[in-house]
Design brief:
Shape of chain A: globular
Largest sheet of chain A: 5 strands, mixed
Number of strands of chain A: 5
Distance between the termini of chain B: 47 Å
CATH topology of the largest domain in chain A: DNA polymerase, domain 1
Order of helices and strands of chain A: EEHEEEHHHH
CATH architecture of the largest domain in chain A: Orthogonal Bundle
Shape of chain B: globular
CATH topology of the largest domain in chain B: Uridine Diphospho-n-acetylenolpyruvylglucosamine Reductase, domain 3
Radius of gyration of chain A: 16 Å
Oligomer: heterodimer
CATH superfamily of the largest domain in chain A: [2Fe-2S]-binding domain
Number of helices of chain A: 5
Strand content of chain A: 15-25%
Strand order of the largest sheet of chain B: 4-5-8-6-7
Structural class of chain A: alpha+beta
Amino acid sequence: MSRVKLTVNGQTVSREVPDNTLLSQFLREDLRLTGTHVGCDTSQCGACLVHVDGRAIKACTTLAVSLDGADVTTIEGVANGDDLHPMQTAFNTYHGLQCGFCTPGMVMAGIDIVTRYQAMGQPLTEAAIREELEGNLCRCTGYHNIVKAIADAAQTMSGAAKAAQ
Amino acid sequence: MYVLKYHKATSIADAVAVLGDAEDGKVIAGGQTLVPTMKQHLAAPSDLIDIRALAELQGVCIKGDALVVGAATRHADVALHTDVQTHIPALARLAGGIGDPAVRAMGTIGGSLANNDPSACYPAAALALNATIITDRREVDADAFFAGMFATDLDEDEIITSVRFPIPEKAAYAKFPNPASRYAMVGVFVAVLDGDVRVAVTGAGEDGVFRHKGLEAALAARFTSDAVDGVDVSEEELMSDLHGSAAYRAQLIKVMAKRAVIAAG
């Protein structure tokens, strides 16, 4: 058992957990943040993606105790109060989901992809989006609307960033 | 995952000491192989010693005519680092092709080399570029480091601290990824260093990564893709599994070698 203290969606949390607790278990069972999904548990599907210290990582492949002091954002933390994140709005507009099981991971991946490409100053093409989604599996949609949603959000997100400058 | 005790190492010396005291300890950094392995109960260390944040293991820099990469450097960071992109772009591209973005956000070069998965990419780079694996107690040439599938020359409690890559005249890596796992079905890394040609093959050998002397000789004589045509790549000691037969892998080795030669320029 170890005590782990980290920031989750802007709030400091401190818990004593068994050392073998995965971040996915910690978020879902200890913090009752069940938006992070466990799809495959073999590190392939990406439904468990969360942002840790600015990077999108697989919560099912990380030990909670290894993240003492980390800053974690889950799907529950991307909206701004009642205002959806542009990525969430885009998934709605472009019907980028059916059953919704992969969707939290897709949204977290989408935000990470757009943010990284903006930071690199590289254009986010459709081909690049499809390649960057290699670690996110969807059994329902065939991916087309997910790609459209992310491409659209890239425009909205860059608009907001430029407007803020 | 079975019960374990987690330690965050405060230094390399501390990590080695804790490893020595542990019943069955293992070092962890990115955990992208170790955590899934532990979840499947294929590994059950009593203690995990986390070295991911150790200062001694960070950083990429140029030292003389070599690129030195800290063992805890993540694949995503190697792929984007200007020193790597400038001096050994083949290495940046290799790192950018490992797994998927989330794996690259955590996985490290030290972990990849210490694990020596027979289908991993970094071992091919280390072998082809004649890298030196620097540990907490010595330096090991790549030619002497890889000891078979999932085996290396490292002692039980030895920790890789950095990897030194001589800067090649030209180099390229061509991988035929498994469509599901993105591991190398076959990956061929070709490098020209001080006029010598080195060709390392991963994903194919029953004993893990290996250098192909036939390809090296042919390319040393003439560094063109059609020089590969005349080379006999034997099926012997190549892996045969549900992903592909040894014969298919032998064929892929030649195709990937040609692509690497063309990409190397």
